[in-house]
Amino acid sequence: MLLVVEKKTNMNKVLKKEFQVKSVSLSGKNVEIVWQDNCQSSFDVNWLQMSTRSSKKFSADSYEYTDCPIYNTFQEVAVDKVQLSNNKILIDLGSGIEEIDASWLRAQDATISYSLPAFEEKVQWSNSFSILEHSYDEAIESNQWISDLDKFGIVKIKGVSPDDLEEKLDKITKKVGVLRRRFHPTDINVIEPKPNNISLDKAYTGGTLEYHTDAPYYDLPPKIAFLACKKLEGEPPINYFCDGFKAASELKETHKEAYNILSTYLVNLARRRLRSHQEDSSIEHSLYSWDTHTLTNIIVTNGFGEPEIIRIHSRSFSGFTSDYSGIQIKKFIEAYGSFIDLIKQDRFNVQMKLEPGNIVIIDNHRLVHARSKIQGNTARMIYSCYIDEYIWNSRLRFLLGERAEMDDVWLRGCTIDQLKILANRWE
After folding, report:
1. Please, what is the end-to-end C-alpha distance for the chain in angstroms?
2. What's the CATH fold of domain 17-116+401-422?
3. Portion of the chain with pLDDT greater than 90, in percent
4. I need a labelling partner for 317 at 20 to 30 A (CA). Which of 17, 107, 181, 328 fits?
5. Which is nearest to 383 in space by CA: 122, 128, 168?
6. How much is the pLDDT for 113?
């Protein structure tokens, strides 16, 4: 049984007018609401009957339906009265008077919710953007770095002793959740570039790393990437980080055809590895052999046509499907080149020299990154690991729910966008 904790709202807080009800009435089979900002909503009573998070329908410990309505015979709901009390909608939907949280209704109405400001929406970098930094102690005591990462796509944690790096990195990642499993002996990867590693992966050599996103050959690439510097002796290389969403948005404005091509043409991205550089090479059969492939777009968009995932990785490109013509391939190459030209521009980039004890955390769906050549007399050791999107989203949902200060049953089933709206409902 889950522990139920009743959330206590700070009574001194005031709801923004967008979440305050001016009037409520019935019109046929619809509940009509006029909000204090003069926006209007209309909700079908049958939808309310099925969707309302009342104690009559939902279990108090699991927040699940006690009697799932999709297995029942549909019956029209007859409603003859609706009232307003303390910004709650009072209505009898067939099983007695129920209280509906008006803020929840406002967030549910997709016809007007787009006009509501969300809590800490993603922000594209300005020309003067610099990476937000947090000390290790701040990162452990506060969740602000998680909000900053969601907002800007990158944060830096500093002040970690290199001797304790793996332990401290573990504690930082656990602030979000469990690590993504890797097809290696360990989930935390140790990158110590050596020239003879070229046959395994270019990232483990000292050569220049061109702009890329990590592991785009999975159906869903890892969401959050951690880079932690354990050791550096000699001249540090330069790491480049590009706001891929901003570059993609400009491509959409200035080279619309190129944007459409990269967001609709499907390409093969693949990885085939016979063994891991971390395992015993004397083993006849490799437990860590890995072969993966996905057919996808370079710019994956959401339902509004805006960039959602950027997939840039020249070493993973494995051609097109056989129905592509020469003209289509030519257009794709030109579009890809236009996008890479934007990605390389300084106005989309920040630079950093990763020093021992520093941890850089990036949104791998948004940021495109690169690295300059590592000089021959430089010794460098980096720890890297990932967190999947569903783990990241789960943590965000809890943090947003805390800010919304609503009973958990109303938070269940909300989209991330709806939760961001609810988290911003207070003055």
Report:
1. 35
2. NE0471 N-terminal domain-like (3.30.2020)
3. 72
4. 181
5. 168
6. 79
Going by C-alpha positions, the residue among 76, 88, 80 that lies closest to residue 33 is 88
Q: Would you call 61 exposed, middle or buried from its count of C-beta atoms within 10 A (0-12, 13-18, 19+)?
A: exposed
Mean pLDDT score, 33-46: 96
Q: Which two tokens stand for residue 320?
A: 């097109």
- Pair of tokens at residue 377: 């007399």
Output the six-digit token pair for 310: 């950027």
Please tell me the predicted confidence (pLDDT) of residue 188.
74
**Which segments of 93-162 are extended strands (E)?**
97-101, 132-135, 154-158
Domain with CATH 3.30.2020.30 in the chain: 17-116+401-422
- CA atoms in the 13 A half-sphere facing the CB of 389: 13
Mean pLDDT of the 174-184 span = 88
Dist. CA 57–CA 60, nearest whole Å: 9
Closest CA to 356 of 209, 193, 161: 161
- Residue 113 DSSP code: H
Q: How far apart are CA 256 and CA 247, in angstroms?
A: 12
Task: List 380's β-bridge partners, or say none.
Answer: 232
Instruction: Please give the DSSP secondary-structure letter assigned to residue 42.
Output: E
Mention every residue, 6+ apart, whose C-beta is less than 8 A from residue 26: 32, 79, 80, 81, 82
Residue whose pair of structure tokens reads 């106005």 in the numeric block: 347
Strand, helix or coil for residue 210: strand
What are the start and end residues of each CATH 3.60.130.10 domain in the chain? 132-280+288-387
> 224 is written with which tokens?
């959050």
Strand 132-135 and strand 154-158: pairing?
parallel
161 burial via Cβ count (<10 Å: 0-12, 13-18, 19+): exposed
Where do we find the tokens 């469990």? 178
